[in-house]
Amino acid sequence: MVALVAVVIVGLVATMAVGLLTSTETPGNAVKPPDAPGVEMLGTPPQGIEYTDLGEQCDQAECFRPIAVTAEGRDADEAIEAVYTQLLDRGWGRLLPQGESDPETVPLADSALSDGGLLVQASRQPYTPESTAGLILAHSVPPSPPAS
């Protein structure tokens, strides 16, 4: 009888340990990434341009903020260039697409910008029917180390 009770207790403890280990590995218990930066981090938009915050969106790795850009009388490239020029004037740096090294050959709208802590990436595709272009604002993250 004592042996049976011991086996049952060991079984219960083992089942609880497996359940505890499994519960800490599930996506539901993952740590939420930091909140997306607010649209105010871009500062006041250039004259004739309006930002519309479309709300924070998150996946398992990061949170980001889509922003609709509306510019009366400008196309997407002109709107993006105005926004990017203003940010560059404020000290943001330009990030060229992978494989590119000459900024003179890459349209400004095909680049991303960073201030070291934040990253903004433009889209020529409007995010809303009324907008001209779009921006994604997120925290900068260091690149993943190469797989070995």
Describe it for me?
It is a single chain. With 148 residues, this protein is of the alpha+beta class. 25% of the residues lie in helices and 24% in strands. The protein has 2 domains: 1-30; 39-139, no CATH class. The chain has helices at residues 2-24, 76-89, and strands at residues 49-53, 57-58, 63-71, 93-95, 112-114, 118-123, 133-139. Strands 1, 2, 3, 4, 5, 6 and 7 form a 7-stranded antiparallel β-sheet that branches. It is globular and about 45 Å long. It starts with a helix and ends in a 9-residue tail after the last strand.
Mean pLDDT over all positions = 82
Through-space gap between termini: 54 Å
Give the uncertain stretches in residue-range form: 1-26
Number of helical segments with 4 or more residues: 2
Q: So what's the overall shape?
A: globular
Offer a quick outline of the entry.
The protein has two helices and seven strands. With 148 residues, it is an alpha+beta fold.
Detail the topology: elements first, then pairings.
Elements: H1 2-24, E1 49-53, E2 57-58, E3 63-71, H2 76-89, E4 93-95, E5 112-114, E6 118-123, E7 133-139
Antiparallel strand pairs: 1-3, 2-3, 3-7, 4-5, 5-6, 6-7
Descriptive labels:
148 residues, alpha+beta, 2 domains, 7-stranded antiparallel sheet, 2 helices, disordered N terminus
